[in-house]
Write a structure and sequence with these properties.
CATH architecture: 3-Layer(aba) Sandwich
Number of domains: 1
Order of helices and strands: HHEHEHEHEEHH
Strand content: 5-15%
Number of strands: 5
Distance between the termini: 36 Å
Oligomer: single chain
Number of helices: 7
Strand order of the largest sheet: 3-2-1-4-5
Radius of gyration: 29 Å
CATH topology: Pyruvate Kinase, Chain: A, domain 1
CATH class: Alpha Beta
């Protein structure tokens, strides 16, 4: 059984740990707010881009574009967006569990994040490229990842490109998601057609707009930029998820440390009280023995 000195030592150690986790929680909270604002700010732009591309699909023979051609999947390229650091709860564990579900014999990987790189090395999976990104990456940095994937797809080395990342839902909830990047199969309509709209309105959200010089020319320019922006938005989502998960994990660690300190303090007081009671009994017994 631990004595009072051991308990005091443990309380001091846990209190120091709680101070560290509290500081990490505050840092993660600051980064989380910035990352969330950036990730959410880009979603309206992505929605508008989808509207334009849906309209272009209706006005062109989009099946002729090489980025839209669907092929039998003999080789797949998966982009895994993980974190560089740990202490983010189960975020990386859930993400890499999804990465392990891909067939290693038919899958190559591109990683952005040290945890994903370590996972591929540990499981001996094929890694084609490793991109190092800043904590707040710029669009020009993430563009290189999309360009690499497009080159592999157009050259025929891979038949499909997917992205595995952690989708930011809210501060408490983040979910690993796999999305197909190439071939571009469809675009989501951002909203339902208005009441009384014609069938053409329901399929063309940009009715009344004219694309110049031609819809085909605009589509050729838009599709690569669409891919670059999609990768950028996924990385922003992953960063927001990382800082949110780390903030929650550090808060839980701080709360658990405080509760542990309370439990140890109670145990220390009980032991101290028992020691005092024992000493008093010994003194009383000694006095009774002398008096007798």
């Amino acid at each position: 059984m631990a004595n009072t000195q051991d308990i005091r030592r443990r309380i001091k150690s846990i209190r120091n740990t709680a101070q560290i986790t509290k500081a990490m929680q505050m840092v993660a909270a600051s980064k989380m707010r910035k990352a969330q604002n950036v990730a959410l700010a880009g979603r309206p732009y992505s929605t508008l881009m989808n509207r334009v591309l849906v309209s272009l699909q209706q006005r062109t023979d989009h099946k002729l574009h090489p980025l839209l051609q669907i092929r039998d999947v003999k080789k797949e390229l998966v982009v895994v967006i993980s974190t560089d650091k740990g202490l983010a709860g189960a975020l990386n564990t859930n993400l890499l569990r999804e990465a392990a579900n891909f067939d290693a014999a038919k899958t190559s990987y591109v990683v952005a994040g040290r945890k994903a790189r370590q996972f591929l090395a540990r499981t001996r999976r094929e890694m084609l490229a490793d991109f190092e990104l800043k904590d707040a990456p710029a669009f020009s940095e993430t563009k290189e990842i999309a360009k690499f994937c497009v080159e592999k797809f157009l050259s025929g080395e891979v038949d499909r490109v997917s992205v595995l990342f952690t989708h930011f839902i809210n501060t408490i909830n983040q979910k690993p998601v796999v999305r197909t990047l190439l071939p571009i199969s469809s675009f989501e309509l951002p909203q339902a057609p208005a009441e009384g709209a014609t069938p053409q309105d329901s399929t063309d959200p940009m009715i009344g707009y004219t694309f110049e010089p031609t819809p085909e020319g605009v589509l050729d320019v838009m599709l690569p930029y669409y891919l670059h922006y999609q990768v950028f938005q996924m990385i922003l989502d992953a960063r927001a998820s990382e800082h949110s998960a780390r903030m929650v994990a550090m808060k839980n660690a701080t709360d658990n440390a405080k509760q542990f300190i309370k439990d140890l303090t109670l145990e220390y007081n009980k032991m101290r009280q028992a020691s005092i009671t024992t000493e008093l009994l010994e003194i009383s017994t000694a006095q009774m023995a002398v008096g007798a």
